[in-house]
Amino acid sequence: MKTNLLCFFVATLFSLSSYAKHNKSSNNLTKKNALLYADLPNFSYELNNGPSDNESFTINDGLFLTRPYTVTAPAGYEVYVTGSPGFADQIVISGAFISLGPVPVYVRLKAGLDTGTYNGNVSITAPAKTILSVTHPAISYTLSVTGAVTRKETIWNSGSWSNGLPETETIAIINDDYTTETNGNLISYNIEIASGKTVIVSNNSYIQVKNDATIDGTLIVESTGSFVQVNNLGTFTVNPGGISKVNKLTTNLNHWYDYTYWSSPVSNTTVNSAFASSNTNMRFWFNAANFLDVLAEVGNTGTYIAGHDDIDDNGNDWALLNGNTILQPGVGYAATHSGSGFTVGNKYPYIFTGTFNTGTITTPIFYNGDNDDLDWNFIGNPYPSAINVDSFFAANTGVIASAIYLWSHATPPSSGSSGNQVYNFNTNDYAIINGAGEVAGGSGIIPGRNIPSGQGFFIQGLTNGNATFTNAMRVAENDANAQFFKNETTTDANKIWLNLSSNNGVFNQALIAYMDGATNGDDGSYYDALRNMSGECASMLYTTIAGVPNKKYAIQAKNATALNSNEIIPLEFYNSDALTSQFTIALDKEEGDFLENNPIYLKDNHLNMLHDLRISSYNFTASTGEFSDRFEVVFTDETLAINTNDLANQLSIIELNPSEIQFKTNLENPIESIHLYNTAGQLVQQVKANKASALKINSSTIATGTYIAKVYLENDILLTKKLVKQL
User: What is the per-residue pLDDT across 621-647, written as a single tens digit (0 to 9) for each?
Assistant: First the structure.
């Protein structure tokens, strides 16, 4: 009976919901793992849609031994039995419950699993039990389970998606032509383009792929479109017969010899292929290892003095490109368009065909030692999408300075601009981006905080190493790639942009930013970006920092707390044009609560004039020279409160004859000195008085015209009045 009883126990101990398929009465069931053939297959769900449906098996201890059963799920699964709190990795079924009869146990794949297969064994155990001196052995069985979490797939065919719009975790299979302009931006996990089908990423649109791209057909990215891959380990594969290319347009070119700064968004393309429309004799790369600047040229005369002018001293930095050279990712290149068939003002197409660059890309950075030069390196965005400047700065701290210089060719080359050629471009045309903001170059276009695809740029090297680009820097937005070199800065900082322009084509811009993290000193290029001085710039506006000699800043950041109604921003102005020119200083824009809600004045110290830049631009004339104390930006008119109209009316100026002008005041304070300025702000005559109420000056050497007279009285009273000499 003992044997028969044991056989009965074994035969009725464990049964499946699929019982009819298996013979449970065999004594083989006493063998370990004898139930492996009795599995529960096909647990599955699409990613992010778990858990799976339930499957079940039954435990039946026909001997009613009232012993507990422990059920343990394999990795990725969970189990449940009626009366328990819920699904769990392991459950214990009490002996009292078991003794009531067959107990169904439910199994499922957990929610939240990543894609993949999930195979394993459910473990069912119970301890040995002794009744009436008969020991019933412990139970240890396993039940195999198989399953998978799959990724959603959707197929584009005949103008619609088979399984809904693709999302970040969806595989998009393109089985028909697709254009983002018509069908919309596309986001997917992987993208597969079928043979014979064409996908076009139109201007101001994007495709974003989290992981891999497989191209059996054709993928075309237009000039301001973006193709973005997110995971750094994602692959871009072009199979035989497939084509991928990026179409880029230059900016409007005014001359065939206007350079465009390029960087290849694809790999394994040659100079002759990518720059097929360029002048073969005007295609260059920049050998930063050869750049050394310890001498400054005087004009473009070939005469040098000790100093720095941002130009390589022996001219071996720019190197001509061989047509068969393969363009390297992350390297900058410069090329002019061909003069053949050139039309002024046109944009010209350049096509980069090859496997799209993705993942981590490095490019060498060279530093020639601590000799106070700026160690220029010419690199570029290596991807078929824009990259974010701030992400690029953060990833390359300590290797490069945090200021980017973008060429915006606006001024024709001149024999007066310093450089290693007879005619050199004006480097005032560089647009600049740093941590504090952005300023326009000669084109007048303020860059944004994204660097477009195909864009080359200059940066300063801080050490010998590598600049690193990663997919984390890439941007997928409709307009992220919209300018080949939009401003979307959002900040609590106060910023003011000032433009200098002239009647002979000069344009440049200065930015002063008040922001957290900056001081009123030189905080490095992330906050304070220098002007590129590699050329005799015709005219320029800039700021300086006290205690920092010989540095001219295009962007200067100051501490946020420094801005109040008493703040004074000194502006310096330089003009190298031998002919007196007409200039304009204008308020381009301002940001921040203080600057948007307070007056902004330009003070001309030479003419003692205060001008409200919110009302209009300020016009003036200037001859050759550097004017370090002429202009200031102020935010209150109290600095000139003493010069009211009523007070000025107390001064009379009478031209007695061609050689004599009389100055007379009705105030009790006697005259101490008279300063006479022309409209260019130049001091024409200065006369000291012997504290008299009237004074005559010799005007025989003064030409007819308009002048500004500044008359200083005792007790520091200043009277300013216009003088028109007619005789």
Answer: 888 888 899 999 999 885 444 444 456
